[in-house]
Amino acid sequence: xDYSFDITLKNRKxxxxxxxxxxxxxxxxxxxxxxxxxxxxxxxxxxxxxxLVYKLSGLxxxxxxxxxxxxxxxxxxxxxxxxxxxxxxxxxLFSTIEKTEEDYKxxxxxxxxxxxxxxxxxxxxxxxxxxxxxxxEGIHLGYILALRKSL
Length: 151
What we know:
Four Helix Bundle (Hemerythrin (Met), subunit A); two-stranded antiparallel ribbon
């Protein structure tokens, strides 16, 4: 699983670079023809990882229910985020993955509630959830690149 965590961290570094290199206005902008913005996509990846790995393992998530309710599948940006909110999301990019890796190494994940994702793949254990999460984050990285081009 070291490779899977390495891939996640590399993707998170790319996501962090958008936060650091785009203005608050650019992060919040929803270009014509799109349903969301760059910062929503970044927060969505954090929330989805927590749902796939922790919630489906029957464990408490590191993020709040409020954050989940704002960025889970099927949501869209309801308001522009402040700089403080963007900084909070930025902080979660690595803290959530570092905690997940620590918990994985400490064998915290003992059970898993099977879940079929939108691609019709069924996740049966935490390892599959972590691997699928990388695929999911790659999709959103691509979406972010398209959004950036449209700014």
